[in-house]
Here is the input.
Amino acid sequence: MRWAHEALAVFVREWRAEWRTRVALSSVVLFAVVALVLIALSLRDKTGIVVDSDARPSVAAALLWVILFFTAATGLGRAFVQEEERGTALALRLMARGTAVWTGKFAANASLLLGLAALTTPILIGILETPVKSMNLWLLVCVLSLGCVGIAAVFTMTSALVAQASVKGGLLAALSFPILVPLLLAGVHGTKAALGVGNPQGFFAPGTGDLQVLVSYAIVAVTTSLMLFDFVWND
Here is the structure.
C-alpha cells in the first residue's frame, strides 16, 4: 500500500506542478493545434478535400500518429528533465522509491496523451471528412488507448535516461523513435482498420492482429521500464 500511496503522490504532484506552469500542456496543445490547422489548410481547396475519399482513412491514421508522436516528444520528455533543471531530483529520490516515481510520472504522461488523443482524433476525422459509417469505435478506442500507454511508457523512461544530457530534446526523440517504430506501425494499421480500411475481422486474427502487437508492446514497455528504472534513477 505504501508503494501505491507514493505513486499516487507523485502523480498528484506532477499534475499540480503542470497546472501551475502549464509547460507540457501548452506545448502539446500548441503543437496539435498548429498541426491540425496546417493539415486543414494544405489538404483543402475551393472544391473541398483534395484527398480521394477512399484514401482519407489511411491519411487520417498516418497523420494522427505523427501528431501523437511529436506531441509526446514535445511535452512528455520533460518528465525527469524538469527535475534536474529545478534541482528537485534528490528530494524526489528521498520522497518515494524509484518504481513509484516512474509509475506516477508515467500515469501523468499517459493521462495527458490520452486526453490529447481524445480531442485530436475527432477533429482530424472531421477536417479530412473521413467516412464514419463503417468505423469501429470500440476498436479505435482500444488502439489509441494502448498506443498512448506504450508511447507514454517509452518517453517516461527515455526522459530519465537523457535528464542529465546537454542536448536533451534531440537525444530524446532519437532514442525514442527506433523503440516506438513497431508501436507506430501497429497503431497506424489498427487505426486504418478501425476507420473501415481492410477487413476488421482479420484484425483480430490470433497471433496476426495489430491489436495483439499493441497489447504486447504496452505490457513489455511498462514491465521493462519498472525493472530497469531503479538502475537508471540511482546511477
Observations:
- The chain has a mean pLDDT of 82.
- The first strand starts at residue 44 and ends at 45.
